[in-house]
Amino acid sequence: MKSSLLWRITPQVGGPVSYLFGTMHVRDLRAFQWLEPAKVCIERCEVFATEFDFSDTDHAAVEAVLQLPTNEALDTLLKRGTWKNLEFYCRKKLGASAETMRYQHPMTVSMALTNALLADEAARSLDETLWEYARALGKPTTGVETFDEQLQTLKNIPLEQHLGSLTWLLKNYSRQKRRLKKMLRWYQSGDLQQLYQAAKKDARGMRRIMLYERNQIMARRFADIAVERSLFCAVGAGHLAGEKGMLRLLKKRGFNTNAE
Question: How would you class 19 by CB atoms within 10 Å of its CB: exposed for 0-12, middle for 13-18, buried for 19 or more?
Fold first, then answer.
């Protein structure tokens, strides 16, 4: 597969030129070198899509899903040594005691600790920056998933899976820092295959729910729009490559896919 995050998608029978872009939900400027080429393509298109339309975000609904079961707390759900690791990294990276995280969902804690390893340089994440740019141009925005579908994906991930992910992170925090640096290098070079393998690893045990089923939904909705209107679509870079990735699925739906 060619090294690119930006792909030109056209119906094989002829029709509008659309674009599929692999993005990252980070504010680290190392991920922003694709921003200007993406903006040029957004300007050419009639419609802009992200995984879900950010205007549909319901923060209260997300908070409701990311709640620990009643009468549960992280210091009892995690092993004693893991809780001690959490205390250490909370103080070192977040400047707070683990006690402040005691009733937080493990996914929320994992995200906070992971984000602490990345630079917080841009006002918005890369995908949000693209969405804001499209809106500023007056482009209609949509999603190739719905907000409710993304919420359901979160609901489908067992708490034990989240606890396992947080435990792994706390045991391998230095390793995760090196891994994120690699991922940003792969992203800068447009290495979709490595990014896909990383996404598969992160979704181990949940690949069908987190990757493959979502790829099917997003490719179908992309195709439904792109047969009639030029579309710029930005989704997580891990969704593009692979036998069950969006690029392969769009080919099966009768589209040509060419790296920009």
Answer: buried
- Domain-wise residue ranges, the chain: 6-66+123-158+187-259
On the question of pLDDT at 1 being above 70, the answer is no
Q: In this predicted model, what pLDDT tens digit does every residue of 201-243 receive, in sequence order?
A: 888 888 999 999 999 999 999 999 999 999 999 999 999 999 9
| Residues 6+ away with beta carbon under 8 Å from 38 | 6, 19, 21, 130, 232, 234
Angle at the Cα of 180 from the Cα atoms of 174 and 181, rounded to 5 degrees: 95
- Smallest CA-to-CA distance from 153 within 242, 231, 237, 61 is with 61
Q: Which two tokens stand for residue 191?
A: 């290495």
Residue 114 and residue 108: Cα distance in Å, rounded? 10
- Both tokens of 141, joined, read 């925005």
Confidence of residue 107 (pLDDT cuts 50, 70, 90): very high
Judge if pTM exceeds 0.85.
yes
